[in-house]
Amino acid sequence: MNQELKLFFTALSFYSRLPGPAYVHQDNAHNLPDSIRYLPVVGWIIGLVTAGVFIGATYLFGEAIAILLAMVASILLTGAFHEDGFADVCDGFGGGWAKDKILTIMKDSRLGTYGVVGLILLMGLKFAALMQLFTETFIAANVITIAGLFIVAHSVSRFAAITLVFNHNYARIEESKASGAVAEGRVINLVIAGVFTLIPLVGLTVYLAQPLLLLLVIPVLLFSFYLGAYFKRWIGGYTGDCLGAVQQLTEVTVYLSYILIWKFI
Question: pLDDT digits over 72-86, tens only?
Answer without folding.
Answer: 999 999 999 999 999
